[in-house]
Design goal:
This protein has one domain: NADH Oxidase (3-Layer(aba) Sandwich). It is of the alpha+beta class and 210 residues long. Helices cover 45% and strands 12% of the residues. The chain is built from 9 helices and 4 strands; from the N terminus they run ααβααβαααβαβα. Helix 2 crosses helix 7. It binds flavin mononucleotide. Flavin mononucleotide binds next to loops.
């Protein structure tokens, strides 16, 4: 299974070759894999900001506590999720879905009413925890898609979310940053992690068979 080989090949790249850029078609395919991610109730609660502008990537380095990979990578994906649930957001995506499927709007009203009853009485913070979890599904698929294309990536939570939100004006879009994913090609000379063995829990411990 090529996917498993490619997942063995990938690692959380610590040093990128700043001279190696990724073709737009490959970036599009990686973003497409994340777009196809399943989400809770199909609400598609997250978005991806695709950053290739060098100046902007460099502005993000201090926000990422000095992690230079952000600037050296060819592209930076920022995964951002709805800052909260609203009735309008739930209706918008369900109206879009029914329109796309040629169904009458409101076809799923009994279900969306349940979603609204559940989410709208919860705090925005609790709702964001839920929307952010959806972004992680997209992250996993984007990492796998990149590996299939032999493109390196580094999943990143190590940054100041509030500062990044401000820089990217995410609040205006009703979003908050969750994760970043630099994409590029490893610096085969300078990456200390490249030669190290990938370590995971033993298979017999990982899958608990009942
Ligand atoms: C959600 C998440 C956040 C992470 N944040 C960072 C980060 O900010 N900086 C970094 O260098 N690596 C980060 N990593 C990389 C992990 O340390 C790495 O994936 C893990 O040690 C497994 O190694 P591998 O990815 O090389 O197989 C993160 C990984 C995940 C999944």
């Amino acid at each position: 299974m090529a996917l498993l080989e490619n997942l063995q090949w990938r690692y959380a790249t610590k040093k990128y070759d700043p001279n190696k850029k990724i073709a737009q078609a490959d970036i599009n395919n990686i973003v497409e894999a994340a777009r196809l991610a399943p989400t809770s109730s199909g609400l598609q609660q997250f978005r991806i900001i695709v950053i290739s502008n060098q100046e902007l990537k460099e502005k993000i380095v201090p926000i990422a506590y000095g992690q230079q990979i952000v600037a050296d990578a060819s592209h930076l994906l920022v995964f951002a999720a709805w800052d909260q649930y609203t009735a309008e957001r739930i209706d918008t995506i369900y109206d879009y879905t029914t329109d796309e499927r040629g169904l009458p709007r409101g076809r799923f009203n009994s279900y969306t009413d349940k979603l609204k009853n559940l989410y709208l009485q919860q705090s925005p913070d609790k709702n964001f925890e839920h929307t952010a979890r959806q972004a992680y599904i997209g992250l996993g698929l984007a990492i796998a898609a990149a590996a299939e294309l032999k493109i390196d990536s580094t999943p990143m939570e190590g940054f100041n979310n509030e500062e990044l939100d401000k820089l990217l004006n995410l609040k205006e879009k009703g979003l908050k940053s969750v994760l970043m994913l630099p994409l590029g090609h490893r610096d085969t000379e300078g990456d200390w992690l490249l030669s190290m063995k990938k370590v995971r829990n033993p298979k017999e411990e990982f899958a608990i068979e009942l």
